[in-house]
Amino acid sequence: MDKRILIIIPAYNEEESIVSVVSTLIRDYPQFDYVIVNDGSSDHTVQICRERGFNFINQPINLGLAGAFQTGMKYALKNEYDVALQFDADGQHLPQYIQPMLDKLAEGYDIVVGSRFVEKKKPFTLRMIGSHLIAFAIRLTTGKRLADPTSGMRLYNRRMIEEFATQINHAPEPDTICYLMRRGAKVTEVQVEMQERIAGTSYLNFTRSIGYMLRMAISIIVVQWFRGGAKFKKEWRCTE
């Protein structure tokens, strides 16, 4: 039997891009189900979803990415999906890479990351310093390389759906991915391309980005050692 696949699209104030992103999925990738999680948007995102007949969950208050993503994972678990994909509502993620990620997941991995730097070298620019720092922290604590730890395009199997749906501290962030790797989750990456967001501005300006990267690095190096949870039974592997 074919696996049931859900695309989870957290959306906060994405009125200018949500129609393009979802319409493309509906038109070109009807084999995949999707759900938009409107995260307390203050613009017209929810009205657009309602008018267009999109499949969406409306959170009346803003819970942030972690809360929106966990809502999507709870939906996936309740509706018995086998695979869930985290997918941006701003148009940066390209759906043509979903199938290659699914093919890789079928090899026995728990998480597949859509990475910009599997086959391409990561530039050592000011923008990428934080990514280098997080990648170093992950390698330091796991001994494994994750080339694009901040990528938000991630594919999860059923076991990971259950983890994220039931564990309140599991945010879709690099520190949680690293934590799951240390517990035994099998993680790999697939080369993808990403484009600039269709419209709007990311909440992560330069100052916030620096703060975010530092928090992630500290969490990976220090905090994760105090997180509880039993290890997975199977050994894990990650791309070298």
Folded structure, characterized:
By secondary structure, the protein is α/β, with parallel strands linked by helices. It has a single domain (5-226), classed as Spore Coat Polysaccharide Biosynthesis Protein SpsA, Chain A (Alpha-Beta Complex), CATH 3.90.550.10. The protein is 38% helix and 15% strand. It is built from eight helices and seven strands. The longest helix has 16 residues, at 206-221. The model is unreliable at 234-240 (pLDDT under 50).
Topology summary:
Blueprint: E1 5-11, H1 18-28, E2 33-39, H2 45-52, E3 56-59, H3 64-78, E4 83-86, H4 98-105, E5 111-115, H5 129-142, E6 154-156, H6 158-166, H7 174-183, E7 187-191, H8 206-221
Parallel strand pairs: 1-2, 1-4, 2-3, 5-7
Antiparallel strand pairs: 4-6, 5-6
Helix pairs in contact: 3-6, 5-7, 5-8, 7-8
Structure, briefly:
By secondary structure, this protein is α/β, with parallel strands linked by helices. Helix content is 38%, strand content 15%.
Number of strands: 7
| Low-confidence blocks of residues | 234-240
Q: Give me the secondary-structure category.
A: alpha/beta
Report the C-alpha radius of gyration, rounded: 17 Å
What is the string of SSEs from the N terminus onward?
EHEHEHEHEHEHHEH
